[in-house]
Input
Amino acid sequence: MKDHPSIRVRNLQRILLSKYIPAETINSVFNTQELMESFNKSIYLEIYKSLGGQTGHTEVKFKVPFLEFGRFCVLLDESIHFNRYRAKTLRSIYYEHLSSFPLSKYRTYCRKHEVECLKAGTSIPFWTNKEAEDHFGPSQQAGDLGLSGSSGWKLIALKDFATDLIARQRKIRLLRISVWDDLMVNKKLSKINELLMSPGPRESEIVLKFVERKVVGLYADDF
Output
């Protein structure tokens, strides 16, 4: 949705570059036609329809803002990615078999942090845009989540879900990190959302160790 990475993404990339060698071999342009031609078709269509997707408009093309390091990729999920529509995609049976995905945490974040999503996501193109309305129809007035709610948020949630499906289908080891994850800093819990705004050496070290632990977990899944 954004043309340029946020300051948090840039800082996370800088931290990871201190440990990992960057790579640019993965095609980050995704097309849900891949899902329509695979065993994931029914899983994708079920979520598409549950979000209110329009018949005949199931295909979506988008670019994933990966931070790629050798054999794995990182995505930082910021506040716009946590709301009732993403929560709906997280009910898919797909996630029950993906042990490296922080399913319980992400479901909790969607319930607890929709207010922050509203603060960040009521402007165009987040709340609504032509592509989103082609798939999900017109949005309600900005900030009104009743009735049809936000077509833009639905499209973001759909793309997040499709990213998870396609990444596994392509055997990409994808590590999702949430801005709402808690890390211990000086005996106090701090959210990555805060730590990545202006991380010093101590904060950078803590974030890096957090990522290192999660990278190990990526290899628990049977690809």
Summary: The longest strand covers residues 72-77. Strands lie at 29-31, 61-63, 67-69, 72-77, 173-178, 182-185, 188-191. The radius of gyration is 17 Å. Residues 151-169 form the longest helix (19 residues).
